[in-house]
Fold these 4 entries.
Entry 1:
Amino acid sequence: MNETPRRLAATEAHAWRSFIRMQDKLSGRLARELQAHSQLSASDYGVLVSLTDVLDGRLRFLELAKAVEWEKSRMSHHIVRMAKRGLVVREECPDDGRGAFVSITPAGREAIAAAAPRHVEAVRRLAIDHLTPEEIGVLGRISDRILEQLAKEPC
């Protein structure tokens, strides 16, 4: 049984396309500024943020890949590049020969600490400061609702 996919109404299509354009432009601008001022790529920054979000700065390799929404091979290649720059280390898991951990190094902590203030200022300048407190609340609730739904969907 072939069902015709539901089309987006004009207002839905406009909202979706505006959201995608905004996300692409904002992500691109933030990535360029981050790279220019800190020599960290947006990918580096995302990995380092995920690692600093946990108390000991260490995550299982696949848990980190899931946190940043990357395939295993992309994560593996990127961690090798970051390790060569001294930002992270990959450690074998003592109780699982196939598993590994990724840990942030002191140099990685220094890099994220140096980059974060300027990055946060760019986020404020390009997005947050243009919204009212009410709009920020709505944005947070919409984002949380979509994230909850994505968590229920199979990858």
Entry 2:
Amino acid sequence: MSENNLGKCILIYEDDQEILLLCKTLLLKSQYRVATLSRCENVIGDKEMLKPNLVLMDLWIPEIGGEKAISIIKENPATSHIPVLVFSANTDIIEICKKINADGYIAKPFDIHTFKETIEQNI
């Protein structure tokens, strides 16, 4: 556990409660603050309120969907600096990631070591 993680916030947009619980547990053990949302209708407002250091975005999240939500984050000068990782089981994850200017991805199902490593590299 790194004390450098204290205070860093990871925002996860995911509507699968089991995946959310697993991710939240892993990240809390690494001393991150974790915020979770199951909808993405107000991504800019969410960023202003929660001030995340990193966002994990499921592509099939209710409301506007992950692709549109990431595009909104990356096109807004106030939020474009926040790293956003696509978090999905979509087989086209790499192409989607490039198309919407995401900073990277975590493919589902994921290996715990790879999950933690990818978070560390992007926060």
Entry 3:
Amino acid sequence: MTPASPVSRTSTPRLVLRPPEPADRAGVFALYADPRVLARDPLLTRHTDEAQTARMIDAWSAAWQRDGMGTWVATLRDPDDDDAGVVGIGGCSIVQGSWWNLGFRLAPRHWGRGCARELAAAAVAAARLVRPDLPVTARLLETNVPSRRTVEGAGLQLRWRGPDAGNPGPGAVRLVHADRELPSSVLELLTRA
């Protein structure tokens, strides 16, 4: 059970954001098994069985326990029968005790509706509330224009552009966005594989 946190449950104009629960496994599995979702970041692992998803949800729950914030599951505030269930996931997680990492994934049927921007903005605000001393960052591929618009809409600015270490795609370019200038030690860690 996730302890009470000032950001454990929140909402945006369209979304309800809350820590994951075991009952979310099927919806999160569907998201991570969808090749369209993973096509925007080839370093993500496609889930082929729900045990992978269960382990990921356990890790998210551990982050909530440890850090007071982690990955939310997003559902619609006013779903109709076709849109009930998991819309996506997202939030901020502390990495190496030094920075927040903003991440989000939405089911394709919700792309282009502004839900990612709502989720990302809520995550950045929550991270600043929980640990304002840590920078909020996002790493993305240069070719992922929708994600770039989302993180910039959430207030993060481009801080680094360069080769994407570890990416199998030749010539892949990684962007690092952050809500402030980054110490060189953090930037070095963010730009490694």
Entry 4:
Amino acid sequence: MQIDTFRDIIHWTRAYHQQLADCLSNSSTGQSSEKARILLDYLAEHESKLSDALRAFEETDNLKALNTWVMEFLNKKPIKPLNELGAPFENLSAEEIISKIEEEHSQIVELYKFLASRAVATPAVDLLEELAALEKHEAMRLSSASNLLGDI
């Protein structure tokens, strides 16, 4: 995917979360551990809802922020292509799954922080900070829910 603007970043992130949801869901059927299967199903639903939430950011009327160019920033901080998201979740333990998902969210938060540190336009910075906060909040929710699953 060619990424030129912040709108493209949001679109990429939304698609990334949806692909992650699909990957988690598909991995659930091959998982032998019931605990890991429950976790995969929960995470798949969660990632799908996060993808839906990001759609609202794509449809915002903040055109100045959405149309801000980002190409020169990404040359120094490349984005992982969607097709590299092929982790074999069906072969991972619940703890490994949680760790991998937390790592995915952390990388997206770091991308948003990096872009915010390089952006000059205040609307773009505000948008990136909102997106980073959303990703961080969702990662904390996942961690909390995963801890509850560990108590089962």
